[in-house]
Structures are given as structure tokens and as C-alpha cells.
Amino acid sequence: MITHLKGTLVHKSPTHAVVDVNGVGYGLAVSLTTYEQLPECEVQIHLYTHTYVREDRLELFGFVDSAEREMFQLLIGVSGIGPNLAQTMLSGMSVQELKQAILSGAAQTLTGVRGIGRKTAERVVIELRDRIPSTGMAQTSSGTTGEAGPHSGLHAEAALALVALGMQMAAARKAV
Hints:
Layout (H helix, E strand, L loop, with lengths): L3 E10 L2 E6 L2 E7 L1 H6 L6 E11 L2 E7 L2 H11 L6 H10 L2 H9 L3 H4 L7 H11 L8 E3 L5 E3 L4 H13 L4 H7 L1
Parallel strand pairs: 3-5
Antiparallel strand pairs: 1-2, 1-4, 2-3, 4-5, 6-7
């Protein structure tokens, strides 16, 4: 299994990247979140990977950080969620947003992602709620990690309530 790649980024598109590692070009399927964080081409990068193997398919998925890869691996472990749908979920929501939605049982938040219906969202929440660690660390809006304040759970719950009423997640977080 290939767990990470360190090499030169030679091509990138919103769903695909190619990393040259000592003359071998590895094609990787990437989420929009990863794509947005990739540097310009011809720059050295390090990507975490997940090798997906089935009898009729061999595909490599790339992630900018290990948290995104771990969430991907949890998602593909859910019945009915394949790698493409997991990647779509990671493109539609950040890892932190997914964790908050799953831990708070907000299946309706997950249905905002294209391809995720009510039943699939409920299955994700039920199957992953106990498998996602709820730590004392929370990711701030600047992307850095800091201690979760005493009201961070309330803030997340309020934002999810606004999303349930039809507001976009980014606008809901800003309003809270």
C-alpha cells in the first residue's frame, strides 16, 4: 500500500493531480479541499494517500493532511459510501464540519452535499458517531488549532441549526 508521496507536482486539476517521484508520475484523485491547498506546479509537495484496490479498479487518492485521509477512510467504511462519494463529501465540507455534523447527529447538514440523501446521511451519522474521537481541540476559522472554549459546542450547534433552516455553513458560522 502507498501511504504517502513526496515529489514534484507536475499537474493539477480540481479532481486530479500528478506527482513525479523520482521519474515516476503518480496520478491521484483529489478533493476540492486538497486541490485548493496545492501549490503551483513544479513545486515539491508531500501528500498522504489511500490506495483503493478492487478486482476491477486500482486508484490512488491524495490528501494534504492526515486528518482528511482518516475521514476518507472512515467514510468508505460506511455501507453504501464508495471512494467517489467520500471524496465528494470531503469536497463539499471540511473535515471539521463533517465531524461536527456527525457528532451532533445533524444528518440534514450532510444532505447538503450532492449525492447524499437522507437515508445515507443518517447511516453515516449512526455508523460513525462512535468512531470519531471528540477531542478537546477545535480548528479555528484561520485553520490553526486551538483549545475549544466552553461555548464551542454551543456555537457548533447554533451554526448547524442555522444550516438546517437553509443557511450556508460558512454564513452560519460567521453569524454565530
